[in-house]
């Protein structure tokens, strides 16, 4: 499968360099991927109420995401359930609107009998960990809770340890018109894949996300681009709901926090992140167990695939404005012969990017559909996010991705040219 992040997002007015998370795939495509993390050109900070203040689910806040429906009322079959309108003029403090959003979210959840949760396609640790943590908290509140993500509906192998998987249902088993739906870690409605239409039809749609590129969809928006992970926001929601953290809930949150901070290495690893991690450990998380599941285990076949990828790596010292490019490929046949699924490959780029002689590291991975998912990393001098946007993908300055058909050598030619664009190396 391909990394869907590569195609979804649109460049905004600027870029975040806050946190160079994993590439667009979060964990690159396949099963894990997708986070869309890297694909986050900065959008206007989306903490204010949507344009239609009384709508719990504008449904079409981002026309580009859902061009077929232009009448937002048509996507709100349950207007009677809507709460009082949000005041049209925002308060003097920026926090006022956001505080109101949290209150609206808590009210909606408290009033609901059933809550449907959805995270982005090809979920990563933050998407699935946050969703299952919230699902378990809602269950503790006595809510019926269904959780899912769009096809392909397959939990990545490295996330199968997460507690709460019994909440998962096939996406087509989610209600056609959920009364209350909560979207987690999805920067845009389209990132919900086959669940996007249900999100559009939901009586109320709460969006919990931290992508700077968030498109502004949803009627109640718990969106904070400064949050290190969606798990940070989910923890606050759970706290506001009055549900104590147990070990199982905390483990999902910790998986999200550890994933999106690169195991507490990325610049988004603030003191607050460590404070939260400390609370999660207090609740019973065993960090060594989570880390082993997420990063420190692989079938032997993976080592053989990795060995092949490293053996094929090419170092081009003159590329990327003379700063150096290292790249390799993993064709489908390379992993099929070792029985290694696509979603097992996300760590390869982390080996390649260690190369001292190269500012830019690139791994081209052939998806099950035969396209190439191209993960890129930079160390700070070159803007790979911009280059990937040029090629139809997106991401951060230092971590980005795109998907493309064709031969790897041709794709690398195009990337090499994009990396020479003025402004990439500032
Ligand atoms: Mn995330």
Topology:
Elements lengths: L4 H4 L5 E2 L25 E2 L51 H18 L2 E6 L5 H16 L3 E6 L30 E5 L11 H6 L2 E6 L10 E4 L6 H11 L6 H14 L10 H12 L4 H8 L5 H13 L1 E3 L2 H4 L2 E6 L1 H5 L11 H5 L7 E7 L5 E7 L5 H7 L3 E2 L3 E6 L3 H12 L7
Parallel strand pairs: 3-4, 3-5, 5-6, 6-7, 9-10
Antiparallel strand pairs: 1-2, 8-9, 10-11, 11-13, 12-13
The structure holds manganese (II) ion.
Summed up, what is this model?
By secondary structure, this protein is α/β, with parallel strands linked by helices. The protein has helices at 5-8, 94-111, 125-140, 196-201, 230-240, 247-260, 271-282, 287-294, 300-312, 319-322, 332-336, 348-352, 384-390, 408-419, and strands spanning 14-15, 41-42, 114-119, 144-149, 180-184, 204-209, 220-223, 314-316, 325-330, 360-366, 372-378, 394-395, 399-404.
Query: What is the helical fraction, as a range of percent?
Result: 25-40%
Q: Looking at the chains present, what oligomeric state does this protein adopt?
A: single chain
Q: What is the tally of beta strands?
A: 13
Largest sheet: 6 strands, mixed
